[in-house]
Hints:
This protein is mostly helical and 110 residues long. The protein contains 6 helices and no strands. The chain has helices spanning 2-22, 28-41, 47-59, 66-74, 76-79, 83-108. It starts with a helix and ends with a helix.
Amino acid sequence: xxxxxxxxxxxxxxxxxxxxxxxxxxxxxxxxxxxxxxxxxxxxxxxxxxxxxxxxxxxxxxxxxxxxxxxxxxxxxxxxxxxxxxxxxxxxxxxxxxxxxxxxxxxxxx
Length: 110
């Protein structure tokens, strides 16, 4: 479990460093996820090495959305004039995500 967490946090730190050094306008955690995905695809690390920690983190994934909910409440006055475009963007992106996921599952199966 410790080894798995070290891998995950190592890639997170690497993503943050890349973002900081190259001043990229993408969140460091996204870059870190991309790096760990590439490392897994290229077999640089094995899935069994990160699976114990990733399974635990996914189990409690809902808790990671609490800070975003609090942020929405704190900045309600700032967001309130733009609620309609935000709502439309959320609904449209959710529908597109479900549609693309369905196509991929249908094409490649489980």
